[in-house]
Amino acid sequence: MKLENSIQYNVNTLPQSPGIYKYLDRSGKVIYVGKAKNLKKRVSSYFIKNHTSYKTNLLVKNIHSIEYIVVDTENDALLLENILIKQLQPKYNVMLKDDKTYPWLCIKNERFPRVFYTRNKINDGSEYFGPFTSVYMIKTLLSLIRQLYPLRTCSLNLSIDNIKSGKYKVCLEYHIGNCLAPCEAKLEEEKYNLWISDIRKIFNGDLHLIHKYLIELMKINAKELKFEEASKIKAKIDIIENYRSKSTIVDTNISETEVYGFAKDINSVFINYLRIQNGSVTGAHSIELKKKIDESDEDMLSYAIFELRELMKSSAKYLILPFKIEYHIINTKTVYPKQGDKFKLLELAQRNAYFFMLEKHKQIEQKNPENHAKRKLETLKKDLNLSYLPEHIECFDNSNIQGTNPVAACVVFKMARASKSDYRHYNIKTVTGPDDFASMTEVVYRRYRRLIDENENLPQLIIIDGGKGQLSAAEKALKQLNICDKISIIGIAKRLEEIYFPGDNVPLYLDKNSESLKLIQQIRDEAHRFGIKFHRDKRSSGFTESELNMIKGIGGKTIEELITRYKSVSNIKKLSLEDISKTVGNSKAKLIFDYFHKKKG
Predict the structure, then answer these.
(1) CA distance 205 to 282
(2) Fold that domain 5-93 belongs to in CATH
(3) Same fold: 257-365 with 380-539
């Protein structure tokens, strides 16, 4: 790539130190901010190779000058990059798609503090816990708190002077036992603040200490024969145990830990964050990061970790990640588990990230089906390394049973949707006997010979239901028509869902959950369904002339079953009564056996 002299000078003089770099366009506007362990090596990589990503090439073309800042450590580079991206919002940087205002749990800064949830954080000295993505989780926690502690819910100013002056009277909440009326000095502030201290622990996920404390307190009350008080404490213990049974999923020794799940499509990365305290999930959050250029998975995850730790005000010491990242988060230890309780947590986060991605896909599909289809096809294009977006896909399937009534089917998908008016089925004309390969060559040739003759559009992608043999047979037809370079073609083998390419003996294995594989399978299965239906219809029309139709009490379905299994009437005549019974049952077998036996006699 030929560089302008000013850029070449910038690149050559960059230090081999950690830092951040900024790319500016001709107007002096920052269009990209990046981080690097080695500034010279990282920046040079943009200009010394051809990039497969169109967006990356576009970025490089728009770079007019380079600025950089050297920092002491890699962690500083990661932090500074995060800050600058938020400040400058460069055109080609990762974009966080998160416009929601999430709820927080609040302990209000006041005498006899209220505990409630809010979406507005106010800098008034109050304590906030969260954020939470689920209002249901917040309500569950508040319900637990309300059952354990009779806190006030009113917004009265419970100053010492107001209470002493008798300004307030007890309300309904007092009479039904939900509040102990601090407004009339019926509750000591010291005791109330002890409750608030317990609630802080609950919000931080520390149910273990509260549970232990309540058990000890219950035993003390029972020993002192305060059975009514002990019974009330026992009810609180039961509430906590019920809550813990729903929230605790791992060893209670796992604490101060964050887990990050990762999923991606062609345009975005989806991250699920779990906060773990004493074996319980005490916080969860999912975000979508919109890719701007061809960023690596490692860079996207690093960026997400910084975003989420800042959002959650987290200082957790342990990170559980699905794969290694280049940059170390300061004051943390990172693990990549393969088994055990930590791996179970990682699996949970991975599932949450995947389902969050599916949810976003469904939203896009409902709002804009065309964009959803295009994104699926872009993913398929990338996964199969195709030259063109496969807006028009055709799939072929042969259907014959031991050579009887050989037929083939072709289904057509346009913009990832079935175009049933374009479906075609074929009777095999030039092949004698059960030869799947020759049948595939014939059908593919006939299909595209006709499209060429009628000046119709060819597909961008052909899918062959079968492995290397069927794929080679189809490719032979394309070579005969001299259109190999105009159409991409793949084969999919059923056993392991292997994807084969012409001339390559090593198959491609797509992730079983990938959209690309699911789209290929959907098209393949539709071709198979369409082919089987045609084959069945053709066989059924032949059965009407079968000698078996002469047997009273034997219907078309039974005849089809017999011919499918034994291939011909002559084979059926040779069977014993016992053999026929295995296929159609005793009563029908007797009718068939007697018919042929008496006829022989």
Answers:
(1) 6
(2) GIY-YIG endonuclease (3.40.1440)
(3) yes
Measured between alpha carbons, how far is 463 from 397 in angstroms, rounded to an integer? 9
| Topology classification of domain 544-600 | DNA polymerase; domain 1 (1.10.150)
Most confident of 23-32, 443-452, 545-554: 443-452
Instruction: Give the start-end residues of each E strand in 297-375.
Output: 318-320, 333-335
- Whole-number percent of the chain with pLDDT over 70: 86
* Per-residue tokens: 146: 């309300």
CA-to-CA separations, 92 to 59, 196, 279, in angstroms, rounded:
7, 47, 40
Instruction: Considering only the C-alpha atoms of the chain, give the largest distance between any 2 of them, rounded to a whole number of Å.
Output: 119
**What average pLDDT does this structure show over 131-139?**
66
| Strand-strand pairing, 333-335 and 404-414 | unpaired
**Among 74, 574, 94, residue whose Cα is nearest residue 296:** 94
Domain locations in the chain as residue ranges: 5-93, 104-205, 257-365, 380-539, 544-600
Residue 248 binned pLDDT confidence (cut-offs 50, 70, 90): very low
Q: For residues 286 and 560, what is the distance between their CA atoms, to the nearest angstrom?
A: 54
Q: 3-class SS at 409?
A: strand
Question: Above pLDDT 90, what percent of the chain?
Answer: 22
DSSP E strands: which ranges in 98-251? 104-107, 115-118, 127-129
- Distance (Å, whole) CA 354 – CA 552: 58
Write out pLDDT tens, residues 320-342: 999 998 878 888 899 999 988 88
- Give the integer Cα–Cα distance in Å for 466 and 520: 12
How far does Cα 519 stand from its chain's mean position?
Answer: 15
Give me the residues paired with residue 258 across strands: 275, 319
Residue 214 phi, psi dihedral angles, 5° rounding: -65, -35
Question: What is the distance between the alpha carbons of residues 346 and 339, in angstroms, rounded to a whole number?
Answer: 10
Average pLDDT of every residue of the chain: 82
Cβ-based burial of 20 (10 A; exposed 0-12, middle 13-18, buried ≥19): buried
Structure tokens at 422: 């374009």
Second-level CATH architecture of 257-365: 2-Layer Sandwich (3.30)
CATH number listed for the domain at residues 380-539: 3.30.420.340
Q: Edge-to-edge, what's the strand order for the sheet holding 95-97? A: 95-97, 280-290, 268-277, 257-264, 318-320, 333-335
| Band (405; pLDDT cuts 50, 70, 90) | low
Q: Is the pTM of this model over 0.70?
A: no
* DSSP secondary structure letter of residue 123: S
